[in-house]
């Protein structure tokens, strides 16, 4: 999926819910498929792939990397390693947002319940309808396909405007809230987009949209059957007149990278305001002091992109400038996590330090005050965590947290001098109990530390130096001694 050149479009992953409110499930044993799942976990997640020649044809890939297929008798299998003709389906969207899946080859419809699934129905009935529950992390950047501009909260106009060239700062973060098969769009200040373009505090009928897919892009249909579209010169996001989605009504979701500000030992913010040199010489945080942290998937090193689109890079004599337009070895930095501060090591093996004039240079062999930076995450005021087994949300009957749910709770992330406090919906704070449980009813804030270790993943360390991880039973614990798959979180 082409993007505006900043971030990659997210691959669409979702759960499919049948008429009995059960999820389509891919079992490892014999590659069998059933519709028995009660919630969306790994086995219930499907990835949509499009045929490159014909954008209307889709393939459904299971978590095992195998493709859903139907033979001429309507028998369903999910063992194909490569998509063959039997794996070709067409999506037939219904007015209520549900999908019917039709075999392209045999023109029959897929449906059923429990272990009795087939693709043999000649017409679409209730049993052939599937609700779509997106499985991707719900915080993203929203790109208008037609305008090639990003949505952002325009607080001066009290609306969402689609007129940003790049998704910059906390205003560009959109959170998708899923409820009863519908989606709402939530802004960074916790308001919901209504179909008339206004931002409101309550989630109601006018803020609920059904999600439709058209050639791999998303369209949002409101309660009156009209679609969200950018309107007017500032691209006010609201429902237009169309009752069929055209190019103007289509959007891409792109992953939202962490954006950070750095404060040096001189208490001033690192900035590109002075031109190409990177210096700690500003007293306020603006777009010029905000940097997008992009983590290389292979090396796990970090790149820092400016809002002009260039990268920090190491130049002669160890100076750090913002002159690189491409990612290369000199734009990669290692981050060392030192509690409330970080140290940055450049590709010459030296630490980045702040000189007397504020200029950043990679010339130090050891870490002292001048090599330490306060790093603050600015574009996640709302925290939603997804681990290997699902989302983090409040346990129904206690003060603990589950880490294996298909629904998520939204927590507030509050910066505190290099550490973070996490606030629950009830206004109380997270803390780690003496038995290692993460609890949600703290009266006073407790410090946690975020370590951005992998592309799209963060590790969270408690004040005792132990990592938060989901245990076997699905409870969020604060007793991890090392970072592994159970202690890395999509955020």
Automatic annotation (TrEMBL):
On whether Cytoplasm is a keyword of this UniProt record, the answer is: yes
Please report the stretch or stretches of sequence annotated as the Fascin-like domain: 21-132, 143-253, 265-374, 389-491
For this protein, the record's Pfam families field holds:
Fascin
Q: Which residues constitute the signal peptide according to the record?
A: none
Q: A GO CC term?
A: stereocilium
Which keywords accompany this UniProt record?
Actin-binding, Cell projection, Cytoplasm, Cytoskeleton
GO biological process, alphabetically ordered: actin filament bundle assembly; anatomical structure morphogenesis; cell migration; establishment or maintenance of cell polarity
Record-level Gene Ontology MF annotations: actin filament binding; protein-macromolecule adaptor activity
- The record's principal subcellular location, in a coarse class, is other
Entry's localization field: Cell projection, Stereocilium; Cytoplasm, Cytoskeleton
- SUPFAM superfamilies xref list: Actin-crosslinking proteins
**InterPro entries of this UniProt entry?**
Actin-crosslinking, Fascin, Fascin-like_dom, Fascin_metazoans
Family stated for the protein in its record: Belongs to the fascin family.
Protein name, entry field = Fascin
Query: Source species, please?
Result: Sander lucioperca (Pike-perch)
Name of the gene encoding the protein in the UniProt record: fscn2a
């Amino acid at each position: 999926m082409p993007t505006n050149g900043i971030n990659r479009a997210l691959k669409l992953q979702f759960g499919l819910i049948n008429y009995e409110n059960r999820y389509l499930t891919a079992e490892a044993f014999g590659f069998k498929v059933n519709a028995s799942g009660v919630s969306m976990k790994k086995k219930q997640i499907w990835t949509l792939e499009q045929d490159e020649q014909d954008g209307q044809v889709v393939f459904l890939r299971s978590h095992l990397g195998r493709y859903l297929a139907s033979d001429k008798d309507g028998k369903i299998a999910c063992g194909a390693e490569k998509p063959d003709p039997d794996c070709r389906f067409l999506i037939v969207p219904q007015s209520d947002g549900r999908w019917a899946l039709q075999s392209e080859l045999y023109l029959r419809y897929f449906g059923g319940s429990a272990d009795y699934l087939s693709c043999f129905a000649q017409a679409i009935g209730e049993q052939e309808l599937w609700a779509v529950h997106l499985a991707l992390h719900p915080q993203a950047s929203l790109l208008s396909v037609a305008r090639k501009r990003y949505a952002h909260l325009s607080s001066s106009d009290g609306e969402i405007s689609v007129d940003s060239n790049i998704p910059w700062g906390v205003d560009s973060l959109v959170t998708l809230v899923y409820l009863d098969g519908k989606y709402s769009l939530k802004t960074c200040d916790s308001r919901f987009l209504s179909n008339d373009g206004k931002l409101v505090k309550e989630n109601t009928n006018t803020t609920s949209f059904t999600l439709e897919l058209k050639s791999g892009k998303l369209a949002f249909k409101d309660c009156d059957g009209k679609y969200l579209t950018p309107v007017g010169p500032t691209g006010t996001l609201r429902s237009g007149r169309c009752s069929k989605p055209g190019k103007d009504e289509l959007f891409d979701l792109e992953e939202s990278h962490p954006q950070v500000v750095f404060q040096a030992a001189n208490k001033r913010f690192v900035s590109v305001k002075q031109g190409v040199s990177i210096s700690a010489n500003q007293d306020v945080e603006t777009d010029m002091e905000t940097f997008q942290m992009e983590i290389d998937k292979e090396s796990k090193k970090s790149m820092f992109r400016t809002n002009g689109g260039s990268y920090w890079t190491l130049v002669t004599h160890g100076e750090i400038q913002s002159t690189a337009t491409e990612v290369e070895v000199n734009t990669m930095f290692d981050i060392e996590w030192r509690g409330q501060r970080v140290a940055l090591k450049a590709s010459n093996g030296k630490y980045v330090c702040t000189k007397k004039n504020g200029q950043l240079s990679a010339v130090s062999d050891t870490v002292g005050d001048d090599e330490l930076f306060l790093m603050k995450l600015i574009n996640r005021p709302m925290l939603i965590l997804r681990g290997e087994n699902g989302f983090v949300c409040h346990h129904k009957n206690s003060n603990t947290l589950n880490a294996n749910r298909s629904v998520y709770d939204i927590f507030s992330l509050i910066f505190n001098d290099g550490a973070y406090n996490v606030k629950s919906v009830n206004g109380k704070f997270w803390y780690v109990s003496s038995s290692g449980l993460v609890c949600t009813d703290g009266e006073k804030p407790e410090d946690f530390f975020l370590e951005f270790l992998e592309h799209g993943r963060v590790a969270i360390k408690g004040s005792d130096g132990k990592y938060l991880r989901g245990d076997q039973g699905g409870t969020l614990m604060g007793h991890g001694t090392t970072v592994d798959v159970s202690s890395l979180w999509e955020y």
